[in-house]
Write a sequence for this structure.
């Protein structure tokens, strides 16, 4: 009776063994390596590596970039989800597909497009040069490229969530005399706040860890690069203790992200995203 | 005809709220959908931001492949240069490497991802939830950290596993194509698992019981009943991992030696073109990658479309 839908115990443990071995070897082992290498020289060396001028400036720039990108993409995500889920209009399916473009395009393309637009030989290059506006190899360029790659994170979580919730409660609030802001903050926002948070932490993790797009627009000016690029710079300079120390901070960030993400998913507060990305 | 117009008193923040209850509006659904405020504001901002961050920059890439510059004064010369860069031997070698290795990594992930999804959905054992949580690690981890870690594991001099493999078997992983394969497998692992999990979970056990009643053994049930049911999801997961691998750059920078014609991936070639100030060539390679990514994403959508259609008929 039971055998019809369950596997033999030997087979079961064989498969569990394979998966454990794969995850241990491929996922856990590299993480441990980062931590071991970062702390190899002792705690004192670890903190001195983190407080090196280049490390500090990279951490600062990364935080500043995330501080700009995450709110921008969150506001966009909420607006897009509101427009797409509460109204019917021509070209809605097209709009949703267009929002997903950055997910399937290479991150390097995300940097390349801005280089072709704002770079010295780019379409707007000479104009920017004469007006002395610096976008490439500077903060605005890094923010734009990061915004490109993290663009859909909030929106694609919120759209299915708000679709499932429908507009009945909003319509009820409207008949009770609520205006637009009251409607959003008192009715809609409490319903979607965990979905927004979910999108924001995913967006933040990617924004702080983005390499490909930022490496195109940031160049290699030492005090104007983000943490992932600084890790590479240290690595190329054979300064491994510093590279691993800085990488451990990024690792900590991804651990925190994963913890919040799993917490939300276990409490069933996370939006149900059909396709992973 | 008496039309009743209701206007909310404090409604200036998200645009005027106007509900016109007249017999005609009740019949046309188009009017009823727009009861909620903020249509113009939210859609306007959505389209503005989408254009500013994604569409106009992508348009710039297309425009760059036809815009004459000092070096290529006519449109035909620009297009000619774009074409020659995108079909250059070095570019072709990079496509072959990017696509071949991404495909191989996607297949590896298809195999192990299937087993992992099966184990996580079907079996109950201590530590399952932790294992399930760890699957997302490559999503959460910055690619450069993954690249650095994998290089340290697999480098021949001083790598934790790499030096063992090198001394015992003479294998080199880091700084060869094998290293790229390892990195791409790492990056793509969650895609297959996460696409398969919900589908495997929804699979009704009655179907398997029926197969068993009809005399199928476990292997036959798997091949003839389970596999056909999850095939679209498996294909989607593999294609997503493939698509992600093709565009991957952050982790490969560390683990690959980036030797032209041998271990150079297409994104790296784009960056080299930019550093050489060959913006037109970089745009050409970017366009080639866009076209190929578009083909991959279209395949995914086709697979899902046909799967949905088949389910609708069945």
């Amino acid at each position: 009776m039971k055998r019809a839908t369950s596997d033999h115990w030997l087979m079961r443990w064989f498969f569990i063994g394979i998966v454990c071995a794969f995850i241990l070897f491929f996922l856990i082992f590299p993480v441990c390596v980062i931590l071991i290498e970062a702390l190899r020289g002792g705690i004192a060396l670890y903190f001195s590596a983190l407080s090196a001028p280049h490390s500090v400036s990279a951490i600062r720039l990364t935080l500043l970039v995330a501080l700009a990108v995450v709110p921008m993409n969150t506001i966009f995500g909420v607006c897009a989800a509101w427009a797409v889920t509460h109204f019917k209009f021509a070209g809605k399916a097209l709009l949703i597909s267009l929002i997903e473009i950055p997910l399937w395009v290479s991150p390097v393309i995300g940097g390349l497009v801005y280089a072709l637009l704002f770079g010295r030989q780019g379409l707007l290059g000479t104009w920017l040069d004469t007006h002395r506006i610096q976008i490439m190899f500077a903060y605005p360029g890094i923010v734009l490229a990061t915004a490109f790659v993290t663009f859909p994170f909030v929106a694609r979580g919120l759209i299915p969530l708000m679709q499932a919730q429908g507009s009945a409660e909003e319509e009820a609030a409207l008949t009770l005399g609520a205006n637009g802001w009251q409607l959003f903050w008192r009715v809609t926002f409490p319903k979607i706040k965990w979905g927004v948070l979910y999108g924001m932490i995913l967006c933040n993790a990617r924004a702080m860890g983005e390499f490909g797009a930022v490496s195109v627009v940031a160049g290699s000016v030492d005090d104007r690069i983000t943490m992932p690029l600084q890790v590479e710079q240290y690595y190329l300079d054979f300064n491994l203790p510093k590279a691993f120390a800085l990488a451990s901070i990024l690792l900590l960030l991804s651990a925190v992200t994963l913890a919040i993400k799993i917490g939300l998913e276990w409490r069933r507060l996370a939006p149900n995203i059909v396709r992973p990305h | 005809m008496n039309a009743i117009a209701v206007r909310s008193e404090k409604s200036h923040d998200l645009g005027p709220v106007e509900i016109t209850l007249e017999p005609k509006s009740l019949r046309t659904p188009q009017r009823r959908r727009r009861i909620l405020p903020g249509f113009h504001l939210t859609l306007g901002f959505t389209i503005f931001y989408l254009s500013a961050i994604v569409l106009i920059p992508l348009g710039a890439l297309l425009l760059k492949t036809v815009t004459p510059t000092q070096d290529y004064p006519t449109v035909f010369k620009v297009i000619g240069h774009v074409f020659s860069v995108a079909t250059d031997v070095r570019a072709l070698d990079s496509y072959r490497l990017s696509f071949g290795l991404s495909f191989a990594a996607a297949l590896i992930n298809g195999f192990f991802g299937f087993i992992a999804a099966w184990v996580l959905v079907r079996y109950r054992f201590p530590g399952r939830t932790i294992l399930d949580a760890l699957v997302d690690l490559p999503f959460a981890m910055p690619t450069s950290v993954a690249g650095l870690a994998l290089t340290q594991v697999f480098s021949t001099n001083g790598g934790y596993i790499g030096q063992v493999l090198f001394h015992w078997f003479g294998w080199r992983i880091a700084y060869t194509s094998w290293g790229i394969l390892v990195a791409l497998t790492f990056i793509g692992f969650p895609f297959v698992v996460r696409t398969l999990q919900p589908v495997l979970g929804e699979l009704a056990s009655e179907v398997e019981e029926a197969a068993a009643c009809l005399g199928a053994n476990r292997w036959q049930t798997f091949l003839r009943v389970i596999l056909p049911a999850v095939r679209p999801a498996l294909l989607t997961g593999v294609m997503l991992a493939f698509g992600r691998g093709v565009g991957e750059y952050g982790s490969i920078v560390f683990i690959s030696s980036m030797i032209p014609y041998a271990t150079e991936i297409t994104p790296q070639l784009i960056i080299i073109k930019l550093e050489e100030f060959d913006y037109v060539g970089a745009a050409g390679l970017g366009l080639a990658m866009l076209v190929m990514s578009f083909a991959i994403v279209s395949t995914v959508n086709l697979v899902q479309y046909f799967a949905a259609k088949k389910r609708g008929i069945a």
Notes: Chain B has two domains: 4-72, 83-313. Chain B touches chain A through 109 residues (CB under 8 Å). The longest strand of chain B covers residues 4-7.
